[in-house]
Structures
1.
Amino acid sequence: MPAGKLTDRQPEISPDELVAELTPPPRFGDVRFDTYVPNPDEPSQAAAVESGRAFAAAVGGAGSGGASAPARLLKKVFGGRGGAGAGKPGLYLDGGFGVGKTHLLASLWHEVPGPKAFGTFVEVTNLVGALGFREAVARLSGHRLLAIDEFELDDPGDTMLVTRLLAELTDAGVHVAATSNTLPDKLGEGRFAAEDFLREIQALSARFAVVRVDGPDYRHRGLPDAPDPLGDADLAASAEAVPGSTLDDFDALCAHLARVHPSKYGKLVDGVAAVHLRGVAPLSGQDVALRVVAFADRLYDRAVPVVVSGAPVSELFTEEMLRGGYRKKYLRAISRLVALSRDAASLPGRPG
């Protein structure tokens, strides 16, 4: 059966759907603290699991009249009287890509009783845009927890919009947990910028306990490199052999991504069994590259294998891009796309 095309899809999401879909994506639908495997060489990872459990216990107890025991647990983990995190309504997971921050954030979300919401930064900003600020506050202010993955600091306007939202929500008693991307002027640092995150959110900084999660990218520990790209004929054969696959020219897909809001990229690939991209080549513009990063994140969230012809996915971003301010985003995208390319090696129809 001929494969479909992502470029033929025009995803639409209603405001009610935006609220209802604020849950962890499929890859993280079943994760729990118990399924997180800390790197034995990185003690901060096991400590982060403990901190996440303590925060979840505090959030779970905060609305049920049983806050005293969770509060004591928070003090034990984050410090005693005057400790950096004791009793704070926010938790910020600070670390590089591939250390399992999203796994920990989703585990925390699963452990807390509802009502609760989980979304990426772009999904939260889109929710505010679709509902209006006051309506977004009204819909979320009754929640126990708002978990925000990939908190962006690149756009000052969006950052301050979400900062204002979080200020109102925490004032209303909502707990917030977040992971964050780096500021664009942080070149190649080995960690995400916790201090910059806290400075950017200004008055909220005192409300967040910061937990470090150190370590190398787990997606590539002891694993082989991504498979080589296929030829165009083999790529088409692979797409036809896997029901539910899509097959697109890479340039056409990049143009299509410019016409679809990034908050809809997840719906763009919902139900797709495997994405096949013909003629992959290094990207030429920062705007295109950042859209591909967001697209790669949604593919990874949904565990959609990726098969390509042309250049390997590891060569999508130029050396100049990898030296620039979005270095960490590009490296994270490469890490995730290489993992998805590796997943695709077992698809039917692949040449031996």
2.
Amino acid sequence: MDSPGIVHLVDRTPQVTGDEMVAALVPPPQFDGATFETYQADAAYPSQQHAKDQLSAFARGQAEQPRGGLFRRPKKVEPLKPGVYLDGGFGVGKTHLLASIYHAMPARRKYFGSFIEYTALVGALGYQNTVKLFLGSDLLCIDEFELDDPGDTMVMTRLLGELVASGTRLAATSNTPPNALGEGRFAAQDFLREIHAMSDSFETIRIDGTDYRQRAVDGAAAVLDPGAYEAAIHDAAASRAVSDDAFGDLVTHLAKVHPSRYIRLIEGLGMIGLRDVEQLQDQSAALRFVAFIDRAYDAQVPIRATGRPLNEVFGDEMLAGGYRKKYLRAISRLIALTTAA
């Protein structure tokens, strides 16, 4: 962590080399100890336990054995597919299960990263060099597989196709536009049209449930008045590095930093301070802010803010659009981060 004191995110322009990007392809700190045993399946949603069993078997390199009765033959076990795709709403533990696969699989070479991190690596190293880097790896975990950018999607699916052909196993979580593909659901056919060459490589596993953070998305993120904000920032800065920025300035700055570097933007921080929060009007800015919040949540950096509640930064039009699922996930995380100790 950086030295105690106040810093400004708008003054940070982090640079990341290809080697540093590769070294960072591990589960985020909050999932360092994630295991199948620590995943608490909700009995009200049997798909959670079923997914846990399936993925545990996948990590062991085995297909789940169907249970047969005393006088019944067990059903034939289908050959294990090289990839699993976890589909479900936000807060049902998909990333926890993905990290559990990573930790449980006895692999010599394995990688864990978000879709954005992998596409950024291709941009930094070039496609062929990225293929060479991952060729021969045992496992590739991809969190928040994006379908927003057709170009990035096809580059990634081409890369995954080459890796599967060489024996690499894949595990991914979905992040699809719900108004196009169905609220909280993963439409396999739409995905298969995007990755037509990969259609036989993935087993889609549905995980139902409610947000484990137990926070309604129509709840409110914590807001401080200016005096309380100043006190919170300065108190925290006595023992740790704390950022303090005007919300509008940060949003403008995020456009100048590639999303793959957002984790470096908040590196070493013990708290993020945002003054004068206002509703976002530009969808590109909103999506960059979502990516920023994802990294802050991964790093578990609490947020203190003034102005409009952060759960209201995405307007009704955005919440009714194709990126609704992303915005709802971000709102859930913003409520958690602004109320975190």
3.
Amino acid sequence: MTTVSDLLNAKGRTIVSILPSETLESASKLLTEKRIGAVVVRDRRGKLAGILSERDIVRAIADRGAAALGLRVEDLMTKEVKTCLPTETVKDLMRMMTLRRHRHVPVCDTAGELLGVVSIGDAVKARLDEQASEVAVLRDLNLIKA
């Protein structure tokens, strides 16, 4: 069974983050530049303070127009962030992401240190790879036909 740690080892542990005091305009540019759908918000000590997604920005613009781009990240970020442990299985992570409707989940160790971020796309790819490997093993054992 693939774990979140296995997934991070395969995809990398790069964490793109922003300060809560930055503007939505800065966050939008960062998301575009890095081609990601959410950014981790860290305080000045580097601790997880929240998460801001493309959806958060789009909702703000829909509500306030272009003036929303001047708002601070901390005004719109999700402050109570659901995280996962690196020891959790990708299957369990996908279940949680589906039930809670989260597309991005920060990975933290038991001390609360940020280790990476996993997207639903990362999790789906890991599960598909795992299933393809299982099918290959069954084919090798002649238990299923091609």
